[in-house]
Amino acid sequence: MHLSDGILPVPVLAAGFVVAGALAAWGAAAWRDEETPRVAVFTAAFFAASLLHFKVPPTSVHLLFHGLLGVVLGRRALVALPVGLALQAALLGHGGLSTLGVNASVFGLAALAAHHAFRALTGTGRVTPFAAGALAAALGVALSAVAVMGLLWSVGEGFRLVAQYALIAHLPILGVEAVVTGFTVEFLRRVRPALLAGGCP
Amino acid sequence: MQAEVEQFARGTSPLHAWDARWKVVSLAVLMLVLASLDSLSVATLGAAGALAVLACGRLPLRFLARRLIAAQVFLLPCLLVLPLTFTGAPLWIGGVRLSGEGLRVASLFYLRALALVAVAMALVYSTPMTSLLRALQELRLPRILVALALLTHRYLSTLAGEFTRMRWALAARGFSPRPRPAAWRPLANVVGVALVRSLERTERLQHATRSRGYTGRLRSLQPFPGGPANWLKSAACLGAALGLWFLDRGPGT
């Protein structure tokens, strides 16, 4: 779920931009120009995932795919996510330009966690690619859900109910996202195993 | 969807004619101030000002209304519960106990969000994507971010094309896209195939652009429009932002 414009106070928004900028700078270290197309394709996939809506009354939720980005792109996801989120805010009105930094930080850190979880799980050699991808994606969604809830919680007492709802609304996303990411990872493992080699540590 | 965004980006309104570099900086400052407003009356003024900026773009009203409403769908459910969940001086309206403070905060957040979305729309829908990215490049946004945004924007249609082709292939084989567990694997395979095919295409695209001298820097034969009108628009925008900021701080504090 993307945080919208108008809710968070300016210091939080500013801190979001600083953190996201630092993460992106670290993520872009030793970037080779040949990498740009690969990262761009997955950024486009991340953008498009938010168009896949399904109903969770009384609102509707959409896929996030930041876990998949973390699994496939590793550190490069920290560059891909701000760009994808900026395009979503600009072209679709998801999230907002003022909350770009906060959203990019939340998703970036969750994607990084998903990446490390995936590596750790596949490293043991006893987990199927499907399970590893699904668990990594579930972790990514869970972490970003908790972060969004924490941020809403911090706004004020009146937001407690909204924050709890935001957490609950993430549960169906978590399930669908885990399954879709799991199958996608399994497919990529069969067809293009080099993609999952980690990209960049 | 890209076509929809670019559709109106080449108009002749004052907003379209504004130098993209000045437009980005001025509107960013305005957004910063709008996000920081704390007084309800000043936020109302700010939202009115933001809508006025958007009106300068002379974009089709139906299109704007649709986008504005779409942007509010995420926000409204949150704001409707605020007057119920806030504590503070109770306010009885129609037998329902509402919190005056909650009502105030909800209205403030709504006005702020409306203003921010309106300004963002004014910026995005009056500037072609290439001009916007070129302006950001001139404003020293890191080269990688600009190149990545450009390529991602370009690949959206590649990816959409691959998806459409796969959907036709599925439909031709009698697949119904109703969501059910048995459909998950074929759908995920579609995602995978679309990704892999797009990757192969983009690699070829990369070779083609590089062999034609692309270095990741945007160039254009079209200069940014010059002239005093740019300065006047930016000065007006920054003046309005400053005015709002001072009004919000108020004489008392």
Question: Would you give an account of this structure?
Answer:
The complex is a heterodimer of chains A (201) and B (253). Chain A is mainly α and 201 residues long. Chain A has a single domain, classed as Arp2/3 complex 21 kDa subunit ARPC3, CATH 1.10.1760.20. In chain A, helix 3 runs antiparallel to helix 4. Chain B is mainly alpha-helical and 253 residues long. Chain B has two domains: 162 residues, no CATH class; 70 residues, no CATH class. Helix content of chain B is 72%, strand content 3%. Chain B has a two-stranded antiparallel sheet with strand order 1-2. Chain B is flat and about 60 Å long. The mean pLDDT of chain B is 85. The interface between A and B is large, with 62 and 71 residues.
Structural key phrases:
heterodimer, A: 201 residues, mainly alpha, Arp2/3 complex 21 kDa subunit ARPC3, two-stranded antiparallel ribbon, 7 helices, 2 strands, 4% strand, globular, B: 253 residues, two-stranded antiparallel sheet, 11 helices, 72% helix, flat
Which fold name fills CATH's third level, the topology of chain A? Answer: Arp2/3 complex 21 kDa subunit ARPC3
The end-to-end span of chain A amounts to: 27 Å
Q: Which CATH architecture of chain A is right? A: Orthogonal Bundle
Low-confidence stretches of chain B: none
Q: What is the count of helical runs of chain A?
A: 7
Order of strands, main sheet of chain A, comes to 1-2
Shape of chain A: globular
SS strand fraction of chain B:
under 5%
SS content category of chain A: mainly alpha
Order of helices and strands of chain B: HHHHHHEEHHHHH
Largest interface summary: A-B, 62 and 71 residues
- Going by helix content, strand content and strand pairing, the class of chain B is mainly alpha
Count of distinct structural domains of chain A:
1
Shape of chain B: flat
Record field, number of beta strands of chain B: 2
Q: What's the story with the biggest beta sheet of chain A?
A: 2 strands, antiparallel
The residue fraction in helices of chain A comes out at 55-70%
> Major sheet of chain B: size, sense and barrel closure?
2 strands, antiparallel
Helix content estimate of chain B: over 70%
Rg of chain A is 16 Å
